[in-house]
Amino acid sequence: MLRLRQQDLPFRGSSHQFVGAEQGDTGVSVFLFEGKPGSGPGPHRHPYDEIQFIREGRGRYVVEGATFEASAGDILVIKAGEVHSFTAIGDGPLVQLDVHLNPTFVQENL
Predict the structure, then answer these.
(1) What does each C-alpha distance from 107 to 75, 80, 83, 85 come to in angstroms?
(2) What's the whole-model pTM score?
(3) How many domains does the structure of the chain reveal?
(4) In terms of CB atoms within 10 Å, which of 32, 57, 59, 77 comes out highest?
């Protein structure tokens, strides 16, 4: 068993980063995203599936050219290779867990 605190994880941009290969040698990695309105990653893709659990706020998402809004309680399943991006919108932060089904992050920015 390994116990961690979010604030002890590496922080980059708007996310704490749980890298499974470095944290208990697990098979997943997670971005713990908390972004102010206007923040979010540009178009990118991964060679594995990603699941985004939206916990608070709202975001505008683009997946394979389709644009839509999602909010707290929504779960997005993004398949390997799908080009995607998102931007926090609204008055408050967008909080989500982006679960990458891989022990490390592999991201191709486009």
Answers:
(1) 20, 11, 10, 12
(2) 0.94
(3) 1
(4) 59
Averaged pLDDT for residues 36-51: 97
Give every strand in the sheet of 58-63, ordered side by side: 66-71, 58-63, 84-89, 44-45, 108-109
SS3 7: helix
44 vs 100: CA distance, rounded Å: 13
Contact predicate 82/44, CB 8 Å: no
Tell me the pLDDT band of 41, cut-offs 50, 70 and 90.
Answer: very high
Question: Across the beta sheet with 15-18, what order do the strands follow?
Answer: 11-12, 15-18, 29-35, 94-100, 50-56, 75-78
